[in-house]
Amino acid sequence: MKNIFKSFYQPADIELEELWDKAIFVFDTNVLTNLYRYQSSTRESLLKVMEQLNDRVWIPHHVALEYQRNRLTVVGEQHKKFNDTKKIVESAVSDLQKKLENLQLKKRHSHINPDSLINGINELSQQFFKELDDLEADSIKVGTTDLLRDRLDNLFAEKVGEAPSQECILSIEKEGKERFNKQIPPGYQDSNKAKNGNDSYIFSGVEYHRQYGDLIVWKQILEYVKLIDIKHLIFITDDNKEDWWQKNQGKTISLRTELIDEIFRETNLKSFYAYKSESFLTNANKYLDENVSEEVIKEVKLTSDIQKDLDGSKTVDPMLEAEYLENDLNIQSKWKNALERITKQANLASLWQNDLERITKQTDMASLWQNDLERITKQTDMASLWQNDLERITKQTDMASLWQNDLERITKQTDMASLWQNDLERITKQHDALKGQEQLAKKLSKFDNTAESSFIPDELDKNDEQ
Fold first, then answer.
1. Domain of life here (predicted)?
2. What is the pLDDT of residue 328?
3. Is-contact 271 231, C-beta < 8 A?
4. Tens of pLDDT along 150-201?
5. Most buried by CB count within 10 Å: which residue of 44, 359, 417, 460?
6. What is residue 309's predicted lDDT score, i.e. its pLDDT?
7. Where are the beta strands (DSSP E) in 7-164?
8. Whole-angstrom Cα distance, residue 48 to residue 237?
9. Residue 186, preceding bond cis, omega within 30 degrees?
10. In 156-212, where does DSSP find H-type helix?
11. Are the C-beta atoms of residues 280 and 26 closer than 8 Å to each other?
12. What is the DSSP string of 10-37?
């Protein structure tokens, strides 16, 4: 059954050993253009493996043509990354400063001082920008000598497929229409390129339509295998679309079974396998005794994933893009030390996180309270003027509490005195009457004594008569 359904089976380890030992290695356009996107160490690692296979490498004519047409665009993209990176860093630093300023930490939280963090980040940013300028000065530029291009020219000298005729391209494109309608790989997911305008171009008198590029590459591989009767072939592509790869639950399993079946039906191949660049390097360590580092393989995969999202017009994960930029711009170890130093200076920041979030919410609320806060502040200032009066009144109040008993006693005595008043008045009147009687008695006594000594009967009789 395996011989009938060969496209559904993965080659055994022993078959892969023979394949790597005897195969012709065919590279897709994206493998070549991605070399411009890697940092220098990664680019050198991949080139070293490719150059080790010097006499067993080959590329279709359409791969070479697309490389030449896209090279300047990729170089330009890389230079744009320098400016984009500066803008991202400047925006991030500015945004951080504004958020910290909005918290008004110096006014509201005397223990939190972000100055050391801000100063450290500003210092690191300036050093980083200088490093970017140095890297940009050393990078490949449009219109200057391209050493990478020179190496690829040497590697693929006399190893590029023959140029096709217009009749050949028309035949492939006609077949492509039928294949795309039936979603037969490869390339049917590129059919939307025809809607973007500018969908065709002419080179060396032959017109090409861009949506059929993958199919043209595939057909040229088949023709080359048949032409020189190749028995073992390895194809390396960084295309991630499902019109190239068989996927199950998001995991890439193998090249599409339709393509494997087609190449075995149309040629005399004994063994065939396809890799993405990261898998190609991983297996080069195994079968070619190479020593490609995990960091290099990781960057190759990361670059491929980034391009998949960009080519598919998807939004690139910011964290993924940030990691890509770091690799792409060859950030050196000295930045790691600087970052660690700033991290130590800003260790407090991690402890402030919850407080900062809480304070931020409170700060938003505080803006609503501003008028009340200003009014309360004015009242508080007035209260400080009242302080002395309040203290004096407090002392007087304390003294008054001591007088309370005396006041109550005096009040009782006053009430008693009012009761005595009438008695005093009565006694006074009686005393005055007694004094009058006493004076009268004295007068009478004197009168009596006088009468006795000079008593005249006739006068007494007259008085009696009267």
1. Bacteria
2. 44
3. yes
4. 999 999 999 999 999 999 999 999 999 999 999 999 999 988 776 666 789 9
5. 359
6. 59
7. 24-27, 57-58
8. 17
9. yes
10. 166-181
11. no
12. PPPHHHHHHHHHHPEEEE-HHHHHHTTT
Is 287 within 8 Å of 281 (Cβ atoms)? no
pLDDT, position 348 = 47
Burial of residue 333 (CB within 10 Å: 0-12, 13-18, 19+) is exposed
- 38: Cβ–Cβ under 8 A, 6 or more apart, which residues? 46, 299, 300, 303, 327, 328
CA distance 394 to 388: 10
Q: Which two tokens stand for residue 218?
A: 């595939």
- The tokens of 383 are what? 């209260």
| List of the chain residues with pLDDT < 50 | 313-336, 339, 346-351, 455-456, 460, 465-466
Q: What are phi and psi of 399, to 5 degrees?
A: -65, -40
Beta bridge partners of 273: 234
Provide the pLDDT for residue 84.
81
- What one-character DSSP code corresponds to residue 160? B
- Position 383 scores a pLDDT of 64
Q: Supply the DSSP string of 282-311, one letter for each residue.
A: HHHHHHS-----HHHHHHHHHHHHHHHHHH
Predicted pLDDT at 197? 64
**Distances in whole angstroms, Cα of residue 232 to Cα of each of 2, 44, 270:** 18, 27, 6
Query: Can you give the pLDDT at residue 93?
Result: 84
Cβ neighbours of residue 260 under 8 Å, at least 6 residues apart? 6, 7, 254, 272
Distance (Å, rounded) from C-alpha 251 to C-alpha 256? Answer: 13
Alpha-carbon separation of residue 393 from 399, 402, 422 (angstroms): 10, 15, 42
> Counting beta carbons within 10 angstroms of the beta carbon of residue 245, is it exposed (0 to 12), middle (13 to 18) or buried (19 or more)?
buried
* pTM of the complete model beyond 0.85: no
Query: 74-84: buried (b, 16+ CB within 10 Å) or exposed (e) per residue?
Result: bbebbeebbee
Q: How far apart are CA 428 and CA 451, in angstroms?
A: 35
- Asked if 326 contacts 75 with a C-beta cutoff of 8 angstroms, the reply is no
Residue 318 pLDDT: 41
Tokens at 300, concatenated: 């190759």
pLDDT at position 122: 86
> What is the spatial distance between Cα 402 and Cα 408, in angstroms, rounded to a whole number?
11
> Which residues, listed in sequence order, are joined to residue 98 by a DSSP beta bridge?
none
